[in-house]
Amino acid sequence: MRDGFARLLGDAAANIALGQNTHELVTRWLSALPFHERRRSVSTTGEFHSIRRQLDRLAEEGIEVVRVAARPVDDLAERVARSVDDRTLAVMMSSVLFETAEIVPGLARVAAACDRHGASFLVDAYHHLNVVPFDVQAMGLRDAFITGGGYKYCQLGEGNCFLRVPDGARLRPVLTGWFAEFEALASADRGGVTYPAGAAAFAGATYDPTSHYRAAAVFDFHVAQQLTPERLREISVRQVGLLAREFGALDVDPAVARIEDVPAERRAGFLAVWTPRAPDLVRALRQKAVFADARGEILRLGPAPYVSDGQLRAAIATLSRLIT
């Protein structure tokens, strides 16, 4: 598992902590930060519910939460970077917006701002990993914490998430499991809580690891089939482009449904279609054996690499009939 995630991040397996979901890992990370020294965090309005809800709750406890408008995404990183100051404890933001699939450029600027002001930086890469190539070093994220999982484009199934911990990090999570001292149980000093260096400090406790066997097999399959992130990106761009062209050819009133305005080169793994009927359309599509999902008024069409062009055209034709 660690080898697979490390390969997708361009990092070392020793820097990968595992968890059943990203919320578990994010809260463990938050618990390691010095809230008694700084009580200000910066995020965006485009974060997934795991981070959004947790920050909402922290705000109720008196933590100042600054939310930068997620759109336009072109200068999002720059605006977030400007919001970081010496009072900022942490910055939490996505590398791909989960509602619209927009790739966020310039994250290195945020990393640099966090470094200047002594803030911790967490990147949510869930909608990025294995559909858009990701490289910690090339993206200027050497000192960033990165979280994500295998439920979507990695095709690992549920229960397979990770937290990438920067090399040399020495944090002590308050929310800590006994796995964090697993290697030293025989000699553990019961007079104090000790932590190993790096990612091992973020280990949890006993859970069902069955899903990891599937995940390891899928990682091996991807290697055997040469399904690299670069190859999967090529497939995704072609598939989502096909969906966009097929939908664009429909005679649909833009007040009823329209494609979100995202340049093709800046779109990640799905086509975002705005429509006030998105939840109803998801249910209707499923009755026609077309599986999509919705986030608010955004219908998300994200094809897997094994879906054929014919199936994609049929899906858009079905959507057209339901809309009209």
Please give a structural write-up.
- This protein has 324 residues and is α/β, with parallel strands linked by helices.
- Helix content is 33%, strand content 14%.
- The strands form two sheets. The chain has a seven-stranded mixed sheet with strand order 1-7-6-5-4-2-3, sandwiched between helices. A four-stranded antiparallel sheet has the order 8-9-11-10.
- A hairpin with a 2-residue loop joins strand 10 and strand 11.
- Helix 4 packs parallel to helix 5 (107-117) and helix 7 (229-248) packs parallel to helix 9.
Write the layout of secondary structure elements.
Layout: H1 2-9, E1 16-19, H2 22-30, E2 40-44, H3 49-60, E3 64-68, H4 76-83, E4 90-94, H5 107-117, E5 120-124, E6 145-149, E7 161-164, H6 210-224, H7 229-248, E8 258-259, E9 271-274, H8 278-287, E10 293-295, E11 298-301, H9 309-323
Parallel strand pairs: 2-3, 2-4, 4-5, 5-6
Antiparallel strand pairs: 1-7, 6-7, 8-9, 9-11, 10-11
Summarize the model shown.
With 324 residues, this protein is of the alpha/beta class. It has helices spanning 2-9, 22-30, 49-60, 76-83, 107-117, 210-224, 229-248, 278-287, 309-323; strands at 16-19, 40-44, 64-68, 90-94, 120-124, 145-149, 161-164, 258-259, 271-274, 293-295, 298-301.
The major pleated sheet works out as: 7 strands, mixed
Shape: globular
Low-confidence stretches: none
The whole-angstrom Rg is 21 Å
Order of helices and strands: HEHEHEHEHEEEHHEEHEEH
End-to-end distance, in Å?
Answer: 45 Å
Number of strands: 11
- SS-based class: alpha/beta
The averaged pLDDT comes out at: 96
Number of helices: 9
Estimate what percentage of residues fall within beta strands.
Answer: 5-15%
Which strand order does the major sheet show? Answer: 1-7-6-5-4-2-3
Helix content: 25-40%
